[in-house]
Prior knowledge:
Elements: H1 4-16, E1 39-40, E2 48-49, E3 56-61, H2 62-68, H3 73-76, E4 83-89, E5 92-97, E6 109-112, E7 115-116, E8 138-145, H4 149-152, E9 159-165, E10 173-181, E11 186-196, E12 199-210, E13 220-233, E14 237-252, E15 265-283, E16 286-300, E17 302-306, H5 318-326, E18 331-335, E19 338-354, E20 357-371, H6 373-376, E21 382-398, E22 401-412, E23 418-430, E24 433-444, H7 448-452, E25 454-459, E26 463-470, E27 478-491, E28 496-508, E29 511-516, H8 530-534, E30 539-544, E31 548-560, E32 566-578, H9 582-585, E33 591-601, E34 604-613, E35 633-646, E36 649-658, E37 690-698
Amino acid sequence: MKNQRFTRLAAACLLATPAATASASGNGSEDLFFEPLPVVLTVSRLPQPVRDTPGAISVIDDETIAATGYRDIARLLRLVPGMQVAQERSNEHWVSYHGLGSDYPNQMQVLVDGRSVYSPYFFGGADWGALGVNPEDVERIEIVRGSDSAAYGSNAFLGVVNIITRHTATETGSTVRATLGNSGIADVGVRAVTHLGPLGLRISASHLQDDGSDRLNDGRRIETLNLRGDLRVGNDDELTLKAGISDGRRGTGYEGVLFNGSAPSSAYHQNSHLQARWQHTPSADEEWSLSWYRNRESARNEWIVDSHRNLDALGAIPELRDALLAAPGIAIPVDLNRDSLRDNLEFQHRVRSSARLQTVWGLEWRRDELISRQLFDDDRKHSQQEWRLFGNAEWRMAPRWLWNLGTMVEHIENDKLRLAPRIFLNWQPDPATTARAGYSRAWRQPSLFEREADTRVVDPHYGLIQIRHQGNPDLKPQRIDAFELGLLQQLPQIQGNLDVRVFREHIHDYIVRESLAPMLTPADNVFPDPNLFQRILGGTRWANSEGTVRLNGIEYQLRLKPWKDGQLVFNHTMIQARAQQPEIQATVAPYTASLTWLQEYGPWQSTISLIRMGPTEVGSGYAGSQRFEVDAYNTLDLSVSRRLVIGSQRVEIRLSGINLLGSHQEMVHRPVEQLPQYRGSKAANPVEPQVYFSVISHF
């Protein structure tokens, strides 16, 4: 395997550093940890301390982001209770809350400064490999653990991830970062912030590069450029403008797949956005805002399907193999090029009318367009409009009792009006304790592709060979009814706090992708037995599953500061999943856990995370088809840094490693038995160790 010697040597250096073995002796005073809980914005759209929110929320701050040394934002979510994250290959991440979502999770809203990056592409969800966000620009990430359609509509079905970037008023100066490591890792980043009177400007550019796994075509080269400007207009108004572009190439596909149907190829993307926001704040108790953004996404991915390629994958059907070899060759160009455009306009008004009551309400309009000849078998624009009216209220009924009430009235084109209500009651007997109980209802609307897909394999000579994906215009939106009990407890005696969520989530009309037999087969004079062809060229179609999907369980996070300048964070989730179709149930891991130790030792800093993922079947993607289980696994991540001052220059050097316990399987996107070179092994697309060295200079 490439660079194995470098990986082992660098990992040994990591484990031998002084910061990684810092002394655990000594106890700090209580005031080192017993700090006010942060104020968050995401759960109800109201600024609230964590103890007042209607539901569970986790916050990953900028210090934690930097301390992990992670190159991908998606990997940070492994450190959040209830999140299930897997890597299909170096450049793709499978991110879900409480599992579900088959091979393309699409149950969770993902925002960047309130701008939805939940893509209308293909199966929906977020393209975590092309978010266009530099980790150094992020101030914090707020993760709502549980349905939040009352605040953000359909796509917030199982939760929200809101990535909040730094305001230019909070920073100055410039930063240069360079990273080198095994697997061809070669990253560069530059940031510059300046202030011109009432105007703050930031420009950041980055290049992300690696060769991926040894055995897969999964390298990536991604360039990102972002610009932000914040302009104060008088005492009460501010205008914010953000723009960005991400351009890159990512390897995709597998060797050895029948007919070269998912051939190794290069997928190119170019994503851009423009966002403008006006805020009018006449007092600390009132704010008006109006925002607009446009997302543009473009992808190019083409290859040739050859009927005489990789027929060894038909070992169980030798007669079909012989029939295909006897027939003239079929060479079909596959064109997965696609373009999408999203415009979104939102108005919001927040006001605190008394010491006991604050409210927020607003309106939102969105239009999505998607063009793809291959996915829809036409050249027309497929579009969808959405309208939303939302409102949330926080009412302190008594000193110890706090109500949160909210609802979203939503209309999405081709569907009727939907209502997503939420009601929570928080009991706060003392400043250190909050117990909450609540109920919410949420919806997930089918994507444009799920409703209208018509993806065909057509040979110029023989005509239609297969309909690979079929849309279903009769799909109903899936619905979740979620019940929650929570406890947020500060523990000054042991310098810690505890966050517990007990949940009962019932999902109705869950949308699955089902395998179908082909509608048409080649002519008899080409293939002697067309029925044989039917046994391998079935397509897929979306449908609402029967019965109710039930997710019951508990998740918690315990934070401790048991010694000076050290912190331990333990996350644990246990879920009992029940569904009428075993394939749906199996996509939920019964447990996940992580233990993170953050330590400072003078100018040294270290972070060690041990992550445990239970057995699951993420990546199979189909209901009613063969199942592919991924065994439970452990993985270790470690990052060590040293702060230096050279002359007047502040410099930080960092050595980081992920997956240091060795190669392992995290998901199966492609059936192993279709890959002859991997038969007898579950590791069709293993995730391997990566070790890299970074230098960051601050000007």
